[in-house]
Amino acid sequence: MTRRQFLPAIPFLLGSVTLVSSSQAAEKENKPGNSGEEAKLGPASGTGAGSAEEAGFVPLFQEDGPPKGFRLGAWDDVSKPAPEGAVFTVKDGVLHGPTVRGCWLLSEKEYGDFILAYEFKLGPRGNSGCALRAPLKGDPAFDGLEMQMADVRYNPEAKPSELTGGFYRAAAPSSQVYKPEDWNQVRIELRGSKAKVEINGTTVQDIDFDTFKETVPRHDGTMATSLKERPRKGHIGFQELSRGGGILLLRNAWIRELK
User: Is the predicted pLDDT of residue 5 greater than 90, yes or no?
Assistant: First the structure.
C-alpha cells in the first residue's frame, strides 16, 4: 500500500517558499505583521505531501517493505555483495537499517544537482552516512561523496570531518549540532561544484568543491582524489555501520532534481 508522507518536522526551503508543519503554520498565522512571503504548506491545509510534490519533490520511501528503486552493496566497495542477512525495510514510512552492519543502500537512479531532505536517528554507537553522486563501484566516501552521520560515541577519537555534517575526511562541518538518539533534520543541496548542508536548521557546510584540491586518505592508507575531482553525477543512498545493536532510522526523505 502506498503511504502518503507528510512533513511534521522538515521545512523544505525553496528560496522564499517554505513548507511548514501545522503547528508552525498556526503560529505564523497568529503573528502580527506576517507578510505572507512564506507559503504555509503542510498537514494543516491537507497539502503536506501534495505541496511537496507540486514543488517538485519526490518521496524516496513511499511503500512499506523493501525500498523500491534501491540496491545493496558492501560498505567498502558497493560493487560487492552486502553481508549476508543485511536487509533495509520500510515500515510505517520509516526506513529501518539492517541489524547486520557493513552495507550501503544505493539508488538505482543517478542524480546530478538536487536538494535532498530527510530526518534520521541513530543509537548510542550509531554510524551511518548519506552517499551523494556515488558510482556503483568502490567506496562512496572516497569515490563519490559521503555526508557523515555518526554519534561521537562510535569513535571518540573521530576528527571533525568524520562526524555528522562532514564530507568524510575531506571537509569538516562549521559546527556540530547533531542530537544524540533523537531525530535530526537534514537538507543537502548540490549545484555543480557548490554544496550546502543544513542540520537541525543550522548551515554546517556552504562550500565550493573546486577549492578542495588535496587528496584524502582512504581506510587502507592509499589516497583518494580531492573533492574537486569527485563525480558531479551519481547515486544517492544510506549506510549502516553502527555498533552495539542500534540501527539507522530514517523518515520524510524527499528529493528534488535541479535543472
Answer: no
